[in-house]
Amino acid sequence: MSGHSKWSNIKRKKEANDKVKSKQFTKISRLITMSVLENNGVTNPDNNFKLRLAIDQAHQANMPKDSIVRAIEKGSGDNKINLKEMIYEAYAPHGVALIIYATTDNSNRTSSEIKTKLERGGGKLVSQGAVSYLFRRCAMIMLDKTKYNDTITLSLVEKLGAFDIKEDEINTIIYFPFMNIHKFNDLQVIYQIKTTADLYYQPLTTVFLDKSEDINSVVDVISSLEELDDVHIVFANYV
């Protein structure tokens, strides 16, 4: 019985991991397709920096090459689909502001699903502009300190026009204007940087949560939103 139980646990764990990976691939596929659609069907990553960033994410996630190709094809030619980028604004419990980044082929469905998740968790969807002023839209790169020295970091800060830097024991995080994200492509080659630059909404005003149950209630709402296929990432202003 114990052997059977062990195998069942392994099987369930594998199925759960496969499900997570499949959902991750779905989200990355949409980013790839969206980057092609936004750039008038340009399928060459050398001429479409957003596509290059999305493909970099796909490679980091070990996404199969044929899946990447199919996602690109959905953004151009006869296979082009109707997909658009959506930014939703919301409040989680305890006055925590949220920016929800999504891509969808049916905005009514996506809005309804997001609204339901928020309300179940004690949050609410709000109108455009209600919380966006609490964030700064920018780009972010995270550098492993053991791989990139101070000279490279300072050069990136200067050439990308960075406005903020944060550090922990492992990483240096650089925040810079999103309009400069195309410059990072050339710098990746020069300094052989493997990490990618990501869209980020940096909080300008934060909400301090000192109770674990309050933090958990916010995290639960964010997690439930990010489980949706249409939602790629949720930014929040709590600390």
UniProtKB/TrEMBL annotation:
<dbReference type="GO" id="GO:0006355">
    <property type="term" value="P:regulation of DNA-templated transcription"/>
</dbReference>
<dbReference type="InterPro" id="IPR029072">
    <property type="entry name" value="YebC-like"/>
</dbReference>
<dbReference type="Pfam" id="PF20772">
    <property type="entry name" value="TACO1_YebC_N"/>
</dbReference>
<comment type="similarity">
    <text>Belongs to the TACO1 family.</text>
</comment>
<feature type="region of interest" description="Disordered">
    <location>
        <begin position="1"/>
        <end position="21"/>
    </location>
</feature>
<keyword id="KW-0238">DNA-binding</keyword>
<dbReference type="InterPro" id="IPR002876">
    <property type="entry name" value="Transcrip_reg_TACO1-like"/>
</dbReference>
<feature type="domain" description="TACO1/YebC-like second and third">
    <location>
        <begin position="84"/>
        <end position="238"/>
    </location>
</feature>
<dbReference type="InterPro" id="IPR049083">
    <property type="entry name" value="TACO1_YebC_N"/>
</dbReference>
<keyword id="KW-0963">Cytoplasm</keyword>
<dbReference type="GO" id="GO:0005829">
    <property type="term" value="C:cytosol"/>
</dbReference>
<dbReference type="GO" id="GO:0003677">
    <property type="term" value="F:DNA binding"/>
</dbReference>
<dbReference type="InterPro" id="IPR017856">
    <property type="entry name" value="Integrase-like_N"/>
</dbReference>
<keyword id="KW-0805">Transcription regulation</keyword>
<keyword id="KW-0804">Transcription</keyword>
<dbReference type="Pfam" id="PF01709">
    <property type="entry name" value="Transcrip_reg"/>
</dbReference>
<feature type="domain" description="TACO1/YebC-like N-terminal">
    <location>
        <begin position="5"/>
        <end position="77"/>
    </location>
</feature>
<dbReference type="InterPro" id="IPR026564">
    <property type="entry name" value="Transcrip_reg_TACO1-like_dom3"/>
</dbReference>
<protein>
    <recommendedName>
        <fullName>Probable transcriptional regulatory protein AUK04_01450</fullName>
    </recommendedName>
</protein>
<dbReference type="InterPro" id="IPR048300">
    <property type="entry name" value="TACO1_YebC-like_2nd/3rd_dom"/>
</dbReference>
